[in-house]
Inverse folding.
């Protein structure tokens, strides 16, 4: 079973993943994979201003994010139609939401779907969870995290409050239309665990 935990920067994805793992035996994979993936490392360099004008292209950045996930495709495929669970800290919907927010055009959501699920063959998640954390709250958390940990310097996307708000709104639209499958919009781990149990029974 593939469960994607989605949300803007500072929404509390790591905290939620830990809360779920206390109750369910699950593996965890976070995207971007900065420690192991060359495309993810290029993204990181770009977001911190060290790749020239690369970040100016929403499509270029979206492609690098997609290639990072493609590098993990074999790892992800073993969870398809399986009782084993993997919790993904961000997945394909993050690319759709941030790209739509950057371009101010939801048409790119279909492009991301075609690129990642169809062309690159990534498995569709069994459940996508949007953390319904208000952008102002998420932004304060991101600032506090940066102040407490020098290694958590906010990147270009994280510092852009307007982008974060537009991304949150784009996520809500994805959830409303059931983009790429089933969605929950919540911050309650118990609600998510109930849905995981429901899906497990259907496998």
């Amino acid at each position: 079973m593939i469960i994607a935990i989605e949300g803007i920067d500072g929404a509390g994805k790591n905290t939620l993943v830990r809360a779920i793992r206390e109750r369910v035996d699950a593996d965890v994979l976070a995207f971007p994979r900065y420690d192991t993936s060359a495309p993810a490392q290029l993204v990181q360099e770009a977001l911190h201003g060290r790749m020239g004008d690369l970040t100016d292209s929403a499509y270029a950045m979206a492609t690098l994010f997609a290639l990072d996930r493609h590098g993990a495709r074999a790892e992800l495929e073993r969870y398809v139609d399986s009782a084993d669970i993997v919790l993904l800290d961000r997945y394909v919907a993050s690319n759709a939401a941030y790209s739509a927010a950057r371009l101010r055009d939801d048409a790119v959501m279909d492009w991301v779907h075609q690129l990642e699920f169809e062309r690159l063959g990534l498995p569709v998640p069994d459940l996508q969870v949007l953390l319904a954390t208000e952008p102002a709250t998420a932004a304060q958390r991101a600032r506090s995290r940066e102040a407490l940990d020098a290694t958590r310097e906010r990147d270009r996307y994280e510092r852009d409050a307007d982008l974060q708000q537009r991304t949150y709104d784009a996520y809500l639209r994805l959830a409303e239309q059931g983009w790429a499958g089933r969605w929950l919009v919540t911050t309650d781990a118990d609600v998510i665990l109930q849905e995981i149990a429901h899906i497990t029974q259907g496998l």
Q: What stands out?
A: Residues 39 and 67 are 6 Å apart (CA to CA). The longest strand covers residues 2-6.
